[in-house]
Design brief:
Helix content: 10-25%
Strand content: 15-25%
Number of strands: 10
Strand order of the largest sheet: 1-3-2-10-9
Order of helices and strands: EEEEEEEEEEHHHHH
Number of helices: 5
Largest sheet: 5 strands, antiparallel
Distance between the termini: 15 Å
Structural class: alpha+beta
Shape: globular
Length: 266
């Protein structure tokens, strides 16, 4: 099986424990599961979110436990190795290593790794991780810290879906791509999510994208040209969205395979 044959995907709710193995997938693919919630991603630049907030993460853990952070942590891939970063309040316990504390980042190696989050109400939440190994790959130590981080932009699942809908022409490699209209993006998002609790509207997509551009224009790794800056000439039209999409394509945050969200195969 080749990497292009395996796309990021939600795992079936009836999938048994990952300790017993995982479905066939390319070496380097990560499977993450907590109860019935699970997600799998092949080795590529990607940020997989897990935590309590069902609408903002790929894998829900501790959904009914207020002591678990809405975003407990993320798995990031630099295209080769997977790393765990704690983004929540509670330590993440990993066998054979010190607890992974808030904003600490460690590597996760091939094979099965059970992670746990313990909360003050004496509950323990299990997050199962299984990374498909390569038989020819030399063993490397897990749990090692790193100082370098991937340049991939951290997006929530909802933010990623909006950008895929907005930038679908770029992902299809059309000759002269431009962002789709707010209405088309909203229509495509509603079609991709049958019977959503809160249907998308053009205004909602426009507002959320504007908020995202504002967030990504500041801090470490800030993206230039995604908010109005001195020297920019009106009317800006699609300039800000075009700059955002092209920046995310350059750092491989968005790739053509992401069109799976809209039901397309690449």
């Amino acid at each position: 099986m080749q990497i292009r044959d395996f796309i990021p995907q939600v795992l079936p709710q009836n999938l048994p424990s990952l300790a017993g193995g995982v479905p066939p997938a390319p070496a380097g693919t990560i499977f993450v599961k907590a109860g019935p919630s699970g997600f799998a991603v092949p080795p590529r630049k990607f940020t997989l979110h897990f935590g309590r907030a069902e609408l903002d993460v790929h894998v829900v853990i501790g959904g009914d436990d207020e002591f678990v952070s809405r975003l407990a942590g993320v798995f990031t891939c630099d295209g080769d190795e997977w790393w765990l970063r704690n983004e929540g309040r509670r330590p993440i316990l990993m066998p054979g290593t010190e607890p992974v504390l808030r904003h600490h980042e460690v590597s996760v190696g091939p094979g099965y790794t059970p992670l746990t989050i313990e909360t003050p109400n004496r509950r323990t939440h299990l997050l199962e991780v299984h990374i498909v190994g390569n038989p020819s790959q030399q063993h490397r130590d897990v749990g090692q810290a790193r100082t370098l981080t991937s340049d991939v932009t951290d997006l929530s699942p909802v933010e990623r879906m909006m950008l895929i809908a907005l930038g679908q022409r770029y992902l299809r490699r059309e000759p002269y791509p431009a962002p789709v209209t707010w209405k088309q993006a909203a229509d495509d998002l509603n079609e991709a999510q049958p019977n959503p609790v809160h249907p998308w509207t053009a205004k909602a997509v426009e507002r959320r994208i504007a908020e995202l551009r504002a967030r990504l224009s500041t801090g470490a790794g800030a993206i230039r040209g995604v908010v109005k800056e001195p020297g920019m000439v009106e009317p800006l039209g699609n300039t800000l969205n075009d700059n955002l999409i092209r920046a995310l394509l350059r750092n491989a945050t968005l790739v053509p395979e992401d069109l799976y969200v809209l039901g397309e195969n690449v």
